[in-house]
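Discussion board: Methods & Data

I've been asked by a reviewer to show the raw model output for two of the constructs in my manuscript, not just the figures. I'm not sure how much to include, so I'm pasting the format here to get opinions. Each protein appears as its amino acid sequence followed by a line of discrete structure tokens. Is this the kind of thing reviewers expect to see in a supplement, or should I convert it first? Here is construct A:
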Amino acid sequence: MSELNNIASKILEKGKGILAADESTGTMSKRLDSVNVPSTPENRLLFRETLFSASSMTECIGGVILYDETIKQNSSQKNKIPELISKMGAAPGIKVDTGAKVLAGSPNEKITEGLDGLRERLKDYYKLGAKFTKWRGVYTITKNYPSKLSIHANAHALARYSALVQECNMVPIVEPEVLMDGEHSAKECYEKTSEVIQKCFEELILHKVDLKGIILKPNMILPGNQSKEKISNDEVAKLTLACLKDSVPSEVPGIAFLSGGQSEIEATENLNLINKYNDTNFTMSYSYGRALQQSALKFWSKDLQNIEGTQKVFNHRAKMNTLAARGKWSKDLEI
């Protein structure tokens, strides 16, 4: 087993998942504004450190994706944030893209940037303790999109990023996110997600990326959030599995789903059903941001010093998702 494969497998072992705490300062400010908490570096750190030192970190969380600001901060115990995460038994990771910008040649679509100077930045993050990285490509579904240009350009960027990350002895999370925004059907989501993922793997193979040393972070197959179509959680799980079976090479050790606009309970329930029906060798887990943090954030906003209470809320969500990653969750376990 290669070192990269070892890291990837360990992050998702025994139902563990990934805490996506890599919100940019702008996004984190919006989250804090929504619960009337001032977005200061101190408050951003306090909330994140509250989660990073919760007991479920050891039992349920295999990796934490950090933002540039956070990976360089010290905890209240004066140790570096990556050290705190490692001490809890999880791997520190880092978001390395610089965001989605307008795609030249197709102004209604986005291309993720951040390749310039990436090799040097990766060396710095590795020294800071990062074991894995994340890069997100985004695609919209309409009558004309995603275009071939968008599918090709984002796959190429994800592959170049992954090759550089593995060169620096870290595991790349490959995140091609087909957005829920729109009126599209589940069938259209299935078709476009399949096309996007297949193109990503074409490019990864072309760039000689070791597929045993990556984690795929895809969306689940869902109708658009403005679609009149309603499908059952069972159908979501079966369509998602069918899509991944057709599109993902067997060497990939693990798949960690993004929650992508689903509620906390929906994201847990769909993951649970995917694992109930999972007849592949892929480990299927979670890499959730809002779907792990939202309830804890609301609770914390009422009293920023109630660390224990906030951790209790977070621990519950983390445990529910880890049960779902093993196909052992049920609604009556929810409080």
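Construct B, same format:
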Amino acid sequence: MVIKQISVSLENVPGALHSVSEILGREGVNIRAVSVADTSDISTVRFVVDDPEKAKNILKANGYSPKETDVIAVETPDHPGGLLAVLRPLKQAGINVHYLYPHLGRVSNNAIVILGVDRTEEAQKVLQQNWVHTIGKEVYSI
């Protein structure tokens, strides 16, 4: 299912990620998936939360500039090669995976991954047609 991802740029210094996590946690926002990519000076933090609108407002109020992006949450088999159930149909459809990171929860003993792709809506359709289970809001009540 297509869901909202929040991303922020942080200075690459000790405690920067801690501050974001503390602010969101204090306000009752649960981080369900997180990815951090760094350069020498700046880190890009991407995360999926249980309440994206609230998270954006909290971050803005605390001086951050959050960006919202559509991504796909998808259930994938948890065994060697299981990720191919997601990647193969995307490759066959010519859809580029820009990034992928794990969700912190599980559904039906399967792993959940977050995908950032070049054609989100088309990717969701391709995955649904190929028996891959995209995950909706029920993930956030686990």
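Answer (T.O., handling editor elsewhere):
This is acceptable in a supplement if you add a one-line summary per construct. For B, something like: The beta strands are 2-11, 31-38, 42-49, 67-76, 97-107, 110-117.
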